[in-house]
Amino acid sequence: MLAQTVLAPHRATAPELGTVKALMTEDESPVSDAPLYRPEAIGLLLLALLLSPKGPKEKK
After folding, report:
1. How far apart are the C-alpha atoms of 47 and 58, rounded to whole Å?
2. What's the gap between Cα 49 and its chain centre?
3. I need a surface site. Which of 2, 17, 23, 42 has the fewest CB within 10 A?
């Protein structure tokens, strides 16, 4: 059988509690600067597509 060690319970001190509270309430920083979804951008893309010049036609 494996021997088990029983540890006495640990009471957190005021500075430790303050540190844990600060870590739990800290805002998350953005991981990347990925573009956000913007529905109004779809209209601009469609407008740009409609206004773009047509490609050259193939000669037969």
Report:
1. 25
2. 31
3. 2
Task: Give the global pTM.
Answer: 0.33
Q: What is the DSSP letter of 51?
A: H
CB under 8 Å to 1, separation ≥6 — which residues? none
Give the count of beta carbons closer than 10 Å to the beta carbon of residue 19: 12
Residue 56 has a CB neighbour count (10 Å cut-off) of 6
Location of structure tokens 């913007």: 38
Contact present, 20 and 12 (Cβ < 8 Å) = yes
